[in-house]
Write a structure and sequence with these properties.
Blueprint: E1 3-7, E2 10-14, E3 18-22, E4 28-31, H1 33-39, H2 43-46, H3 61-72, E5 77-84, E6 90-101, E7 107-116, H4 119-136
Length: about 140
């Protein structure tokens, strides 16, 4: 059963996996219903937008830099990400991103599957991300 609740400034969800697909530049080409529901955006607001539309300012640039390096090199990437909903609330997801290849093995985009993050993982990563942000500023 799917469950969605608001707790303070956070949006907590259970159930289905959030799926999104982007082109090589991070422009959203697909978002499933659960992704739309949790992000607070309608599908037509997401398609054609850069995935940064949901980027939370608490996320260190270094995390995304490592992510882009990995997926552009043809590797998968997994990590915890704090996202920003359209209404300003945040939500945490355990994210797996893999490159999409054409029949010539060229990377033509990326697909991402996101699950709800555990409270333990959120706490550990929140502390780490704060330390990284301090060094970036």
């Amino acid at each position: 059963m799917n469950k969605v609740v608001q707790v303070d400034e956070e949006y907590i969800f259970e159930g289905s996996i959030l799926i999104s697909q982007t082109d090589l530049k991070g422009i959203i080409t697909f978002a499933n219903r659960k992704f739309c529901e949790v992000s607070g955006y309608k599908v037509d607001e997401l398609i054609g937008s850069n995935l940064n539309i949901i980027r939370h300012p608490d996320m260190p640039k270094a995390i995304f830099s490592k992510m882009w390096t990995s997926i552009q090199d043809g590797q998968s990437w997994n990590g915890l990400v704090k996202n920003l909903r359209k209404d300003g609330l945040c939500y945490w997801v355990d994210t797996e991103i893999i490159p999409i290849h054409d029949d010539k093995e060229e990377i033509i985009g990326y697909i991402s599957a996101k699950n709800v993050a555990s409270r333990k993982d959120i706490q550990e990563n929140e502390d780490l991300y704060k330390k990284i942000l301090e060094t970036e500023n």
